[in-house]
Amino acid sequence: MILVTGATGHFGKATIDFLLKKGISANSISALVRDEAKAEDLKTKGINLKIGDYDNYASLVEAFKGVDKLLLVSSSDVVNRGQQHENAVKAAKEAGVKHIFYTSFERKNDTETSPIYFLAKSHIDTENLIKASGMTYTIFKNNLYLDVLPMFFGEQVLTTGIFLPAGETKSAFALRNDMAEATASVLTSEGHENKAYSLSNTESVSIQEIAEDLSEIVGKQINYVSPPKDIYVKTLTEAGVPAEYVGMFAGFAEAIKQGEYSTEKTDLENLLGRKPTTTKDFLKVVYASK
Ligand SMILES: NC(=O)c1ccc[n+]([C@@H]2O[C@H](COP(=O)([O-])OP(=O)(O)OC[C@H]3O[C@@H](n4cnc5c(N)ncnc54)[C@H](OP(=O)(O)O)[C@@H]3O)[C@@H](O)[C@H]2O)c1
User: pTM here?
Assistant: First the structure.
């Protein structure tokens, strides 16, 4: 039995779809959901629903019973997920899960000096807990989703251009769906015991190159400005963007600038057996019709 957590979210849902496409029968897949009403499509596909919440330890132990492979999709609750993941790892151990797979993140800097330490810490702690648990594990170091770039660029990007303090460093951003496909591939094949994979693109791009691609796609000049961080924070704050978003965007931009998402690793391409979706192809899908 394979159990996927976060199954009502984008990544978990996509991974389950790829498991089905790879020939795993629906009755061999379980989905952890905290709100059954959000799981009608999973039910229709014949997936076993397990009701559980990362905040409720007992619900996790119950849900994880009989599971051979557990895909722990990291929680979207960035404030509480350290404890939530600890609950999930301990529950997996107690329930007798044989192999735990975890969606962590690609990075270079594991220390408090990382500009995204507020997000990084819980991933690093979870990786350490998993390794100390004695369960067989596989860690996915997921690069920044291409899918989140439009959020950083803002809704008016085609009018205002890209204003982001991300410098000129190249990153290996990858499509969330490609990462889900690669994850399903690992879940359905052998030889991944106690390994870590970087789910990163094999083509790296700078934000300047993204602006150039975007200009070509929409047929007009889209400029990229990388302001000093304090100017960026002041500009967004004066525009009424809530402080937590300003801090998050500034942290990610600085991480891009410092090369946190820059890697030459080819695991994603190897697992997919094809080139990952390029940034330009992603941009075409999002912006070509705008
Ligand atoms: N690499 C990147 O660029 C990147 C970007 C964004 C997020 N992430 C991380 O990757 C994860 C998966 O991405 P995604 O796009 O699939 O995120 P998503 O669509 O927001 O899905 C998050 C999933 O986590 C579930 N969840 C949240 N709190 C929970 C709890 N207390 N107990 C049980 N389940 C809980 C949600 O359930 P509900 O549907 O009930 O809310 C949902 O199914 C995110 O959660 C986040 O940790 C990575």
Answer: 0.97
